[in-house]
Amino acid sequence: MYTQNQSTGEDQNQSNDHKKDSQGKGNKEESPFMRSQRYAKWSLLGTVGICTPLFIVMNGKPKTDEEGNEILDEYSEKPVPIAYMKRAWAEVNLVKKDIVEPSSKKLLPDPLEEPYYQPPYTLVIELMDVFLRPVYDSVTGWRFKKRPGIDYFLSQVGPPMYEVVVFTRETGMTAFPLIDSMDSKGYIMYRLFRDSARYQSGFSLGEITKGEMPKLDPYYQKDLKYLNRDLSRVIMVDCDRRACEKQPENGLCLNKWDGDSNDTALFDLAALLRTIATSDVDDVRPILKHYSGYSDPLHAFKLAQARMQQETTQLKEMPKTNSELFARTGSALSSFFRRR
């Protein structure tokens, strides 16, 4: 009897020890990181489960007038739960529109009328990587470096030739003081910032061979139809081709400035813009479309200018060559007749 009870007790102890070992192994298998992930997941689900119905109830109820009477809308005839959800979703889209869409459908005031002077062309140009570039210095920290030729460029293309508009992807708080310090003589007539552009959630595939992984690559799209200007006389200069994608025929995409202190791009750009303006073209878009076909439009313009200058020089030399030829021919004929 004693032996049987003893063996039964030993079996129970072994069973309890086995359960404890199993529980101990189970506890050891869940690391602190996994536990925190589990807590975070359930916390997130709980938050969404509580906040979503509250959001629908608060934002999905119908509007009321001053007397508290319900105002009928396009959802009033639908079942109450569906009407609440549709109104709440409409509120979400309204907030999204405020964030994504330009702040105004009319970005610039109406063109100036006499007795004031309105430049015949409008130049819309980006600030970052065209005029300025953020650089880091171990002594001064982060600062903005000015591109060589800014003062010359603005003096050459500013009024009365172009209405200069800086349209930047930066916020007004960042860009306003930079423009003030860059344009001390006031050539820039208007300033447009990030809120005047359309936010787009872009995506970059990257290049695995160069170690670049796929990533989100948002950008700001500049829609010139809100500019309140004749687009046949608008030139937009930027370093991001996506910024011009709504009106690519108005865009001139340059290479980003890499910070080189010997850079001459602004001098070349000023020459190109002055050539367009002094030619008094009715529509700038065919010219911009031609140069947009090159990876470096400014280099293509310089080559075209050099070729045209060479042809002009050859044309000037042709009358001189012909006169010398005629003189030699006449001299030979006169000597021939004298010998006769």
**Domain module tally:** 3
Query: Shape from CA axes?
Result: extended
> What's the mean pLDDT score?
84
The low-confidence parts are 336-340
Distance, first to last CA:
163 Å
CATH architecture grouping of the largest domain: 3-Layer(aba) Sandwich
CATH class of the largest domain: Alpha Beta
Rg to the nearest angstrom? 36 Å
In DSSP terms, counting alpha (H) and pi (I) runs of 4 or more, how many helices?
8
Strand order of the largest sheet: 5-4-1-10-11
Determine the strand fraction and express it as a percent band: 5-15%
Q: At the fourth CATH level, what is the homologous superfamily of the largest domain?
A: HAD superfamily/HAD-like
Characterize the main sheet.
5 strands, parallel
Helix/strand structural class = alpha/beta
- Helix percentage range: 40-55%
Number of strands: 11
Helix and strand element order: HHHEEEHEHEEEEEEEHHH
CATH topology of the largest domain: Rossmann fold
